[in-house]
Amino acid sequence: MLMKNYRDFETYTKRFPDENGRFGEYGGQYLPPELQVAFEEISDAYESICHSAKFINELRRIRKEFQGRPTPVYHCERLSNLLGQCQIYLKREDLNHTGAHKLNHCMGEGLLATYLGKKKLIAETGAGQHGVALATAAAYFGLECDIYMGEVDIKKQAPNVSRMKILGARVIPVSHGLKTLKEAVDSAFAAYLKEYKTAIYCIGSALGPHPFPKMVRDFQSIVGIEARQQFLEMTGIMPDVVCACVGGGSNAAGMFIPFLDAPVEIVGVEPMGRGANVGDNAASITYGKKGVLHGFESYLLQDENGEPQPVYSVASGLDYPGVGPEHAYLHDIGRVKYDYVTDDEAMEAFFMLSRYEGIIPALESSHAVAYAIRYARTHKSGSILVNLSGRGDKDMDYVLEHYGDKYLK
Length: 409
Ligand SMILES: Cc1ncc(COP(=O)(O)O)c(C=O)c1O
Fold this sequence. Notes:
This protein has 17 helices and 14 strands. By secondary structure, the chain is α/β, with parallel strands linked by helices.
């Protein structure tokens, strides 16, 4: 069904995904038979538990007392004045405990795991933020935790590797293929296949087989719910634009869904890396085609045989050859616009936000900030609300080593 007007989205979350986990033609569940049972168990448990007052109240308490929610919305006055008249605002998910939005779904998934009587949480990580968040959830709930991480990312995101280990997780290096996020997902899936009776696979984004795209979106929606109310309280109106970076799509889904029925332009920002050539970016919606990977159907960067193509972004959390199925759907129906930002633009944004506002953004989030900077340079009025999905402490060593000469005086 094609939805043309923002008001068509008032009942959107009740209608999407459908009972087969589909967002239009995307999503679904492509699994070996033995895992179908495990995913059915997760799906049934989620559907019954997520409506129970006990689960909702416990999650609310965790968000307030442990995570420090609500995170604030912040007006970047200095940066906005520097660029012109358009006003830039940030939803400060970098201030969520552990420094990124990832904890929003990890605490939900951890709570679900305890309801299911599971003993272990398994996941992959790219930038290490999901790994840190899941290790934190495991420590909180008293569960074991195995995190699969590509060797390239282990080197690039060393501080997060240390954090995961200190939190008690096992970090398992992945050494095949490009040794980054896609391979880490492959390995985590393989491990889960052996342990699904006692473990739960907590996918790091709004992707994977049903019910994960829905579950992660639902847990992340707190970001947009808070932001909408906070922005309205601050300014009395809606922002003109809401934007977020898109890797797998969890922070973007959380930010966008509560704004779908509002008169707001919504923009997802993909990583254009070094440029348009195959292997130089990870812009799955911009260049991808429909296909199946890791148990779900969506836009994928793939070759003519349907094999995933090599991907790259300076931001480890964005270099995945696919995107969550809900984003594929929102793109096709035209409700969300997907644009892109290069490594160089993201790096400029990283330093501008640091120097003009005293906020060091994660390289992933810098893509959304870069889009806002571009928007503010080209629009003489209005406002743009950015989901600042995480903080950049994990990226500082890498940035200084590779970009220090250019940006440091
Ligand atoms: C801070 C931050 N933002 C964004 C992302 C991208 O993930 P997603 O698209 O699921 O929000 C990551 C992934 O690691 C991240 O660490």
